[in-house]
Design a protein that fits this description.
Number of strands: 6
Number of domains: 2
Radius of gyration: 19 Å
Helix content: 40-55%
Distance between the termini: 41 Å
Strand order of the largest sheet: 1-4
Shape: globular
Largest sheet: 2 strands, antiparallel
Structural class: mainly alpha
Length: 222
């Protein structure tokens, strides 16, 4: 039973690459699938300035994200901080497509160091364990932390999911649509206020607040 379970997990991760590969051929498939989640071991890389906050993105609890174990999108069970993608895609922002190389290879995060698409055992052993959240990186005394906590309550992804579920049963319900629109407006308003108060760039905003609700809803077909 355990063997079958492991084989199933490895099958999910092996979708990242072609068959019969026994060493890295620098095809870039792993990097194009998205940046890694950060772990406690990666804090030294962050503190040394090799990865700035503008290069990070927060995936909030309940948000859909690609699972390397199942090979499909699933709602995550706890907050994750990942290296951001390029533009509108998820390809790691440090991946140089022309040179097929990593801009921070020497200082790459734990998951990148462990990832061997031909042997996923080491990577599988750390997925979901000792992962960093925003508070780990900012620190409890950072003035933006209370703002994050307020945003999590006021623009809860659980409220969004509840409204989506209700709308699937009552399509085009004006009251439900109005509530969803109000959440989107509040999300954007809080981001705008934070940009002014804390001088955030667009890139840093994605680390502080995660993706805007309207983008999450667009991805869900709304």
């Amino acid at each position: 039973m355990q063997k079958n379970k492991t084989e199933k997990k490895q099958k999910g991760v092996h979708r990242l690459t072609a068959k019969n590969i026994t060493c890295c051929v620098q095809c870039g498939t792993c990097c194009r699938k998205g940046g890694p989640a950060l772990h406690g071991e990666d804090k030294n890389i962050l503190l040394a300035g090799h990865i700035g906050r503008e290069r990070l993105i927060t995936i909030r609890k309940g948000e859909l994200a690609f699972s390397p174990l199942s090979g499909k999108l699933e709602p995550i069970q706890k907050e994750l901080v990942k290296i951001a993608g390029k533009g509108k895609g998820w390809s790691c922002c440090f991946y140089d497509t022309e040179k097929a190389s990593c801009a921070i290879y020497i200082h790459r995060p734990l998951e990148c160091r462990l990832l061997k698409c031909w042997d996923t055992e080491q990577l599988l052993s750390v997925i979901g364990k000792d992962t960093l959240v925003r508070a780990d990186i900012l620190g409890p005394d950072d003035p933006v932390m209370p703002y994050i906590e307020t945003h999590e309550t006021a623009c809860s992804l659980q409220r969004v999911e509840d409204l989506i579920s209700a709308l699937l049963k009552k399509k085009e319900d004006p009251e439900l649509l109005a509530k969803l629109s109000a959440l989107i407006r509040e999300d954007l308003a809080m981001r705008s206020r934070a940009i002014v108060e804390f001088g955030l760039s667009l890139e840093a905003e994605l680390f502080i607040f995660g993706r805007p609700l309207f983008k999450i809803l667009n991805a869900r077909g709304f």
